[in-house]
Amino acid sequence: MLVSSKELLADALKNRYAIGAFNVENMEMVIAVLYAAEETKSPVIMQTTPGTIKYAGADFYFANIRAAAERANVPVVCHLDHGNSFETAVLAFHTGYTSIMIDGSKLPFEENISLTKSVVEVCHAGNIPVEAELGRVGGKEDDLDNTKGKNPFTDPKEAAEFVERTGCDSLAVAVGTAHGVYKGVPQINFEVLTKIRELVKIPLVLHGTSGVPDEQVTKCINLGMCKVNYATDLRIAFTHGVKEYMKGSPEGFDPKKYGAYGIEEVKKYVLQKMILLKNEE
Fold first, then answer.
1. Which end of the chain is more exposed for a tag (fewer CB within 10 A), N or C?
2. Which residues pair with 178 in a beta bridge?
3. Residue 156 and residue 197: Cα distance in Å, rounded?
């Protein structure tokens, strides 16, 4: 069933677990994430970036995720990840996405507030929740790199003001993670996260989680992180599966056969993360 993220994240916040949010690049990745969610009986967020939408269109990806949701016995959210403009956010909203992110983190504080508030006004009219971002998560998401020469961490007091003035439903915060492949072991700043959690009462979101050690993710959840995003590692897993098939069948040409290997590798990865995010002893 296709649902909004609002109630799911509220429950995660209350009960100290997190919802997995997985970027899906093709039909096979949608299938893989669905299989893992069903097997673990976990609610799941499937999300696409503006770059993915540019590749095939919001309607194509929404149709895939909606089909998966109709097959599922668990709640499925269709989420826009890193919406990079008011127009992109509204496009996803009108297409049928059940959760929208507007990323104004590259803008000055007041401009980020203005952009986020405008998206909130549109989406809330249709009862669709909005995720925003404050601070600068490192690395690149699509073509966005907004950390050069600037403090990478979210300011806790600014975060509280931002949430109050925009009315956003969840907030992605910068606490030491980065998009893409890490060159070393990431170190999350738990002191900053603790201060943000003390001042911000809505669900918090962790971006750039691919490559972050599981024990750091668990600590983030215990400190109130409610949505955890994975993207790069899913791409790596899918590509690894395809390469493994082609290694054994170099003359292979049937996309269904090497796609099945990709599905299996993504499913294995997502299964492990979904079990982690349940945060059960």
1. C
2. 138
3. 8
pTM above 0.85, yes or no: yes
pLDDT at 281: 64
DSSP assigned state of 205: E
- Strand 170-173, strand 130-134: pairing: parallel
The kind and range of the H/E element at 132 are strand 130-134
Report the run of H or E that residue 44 belongs to, with start and end. Answer: strand 44-48
Which tens digits make up the pLDDT trace of 92-105? 999 999 999 999 99
249 CB-near residues (< 8 Å, 6+ apart): 257, 258
- H helix intervals, 3-149: 6-15, 27-40, 50-56, 58-71, 86-95, 109-125
Of 112, 165, 118, 117, whose CA–CA distance to 135 is shortest?
112
Which one is catalytic: 11, 81, 142, 145?
Answer: 81
Q: Which two tokens stand for residue 212?
A: 């972050």
- Tell me how far apart the alpha carbons of residues 139 and 84 are, in angstroms, rounded to a whole number: 16
Task: With H, G, I as helix, E, B as strand and everything else as coil, classify residue 82.
Answer: strand
* C-alpha–C-alpha distance, residues 140 and 231, integer Å: 12
Is 81 a residue of the active site?
Answer: yes
Candidates 3.20.20.70, 3.40.50.720, 3.40.50.150, 3.40.50.1970; CATH matching 6-278: 3.20.20.70
Mean pLDDT of 105-113: 96
205-222 mean pLDDT = 91
**200: helix, coil or strand?**
coil
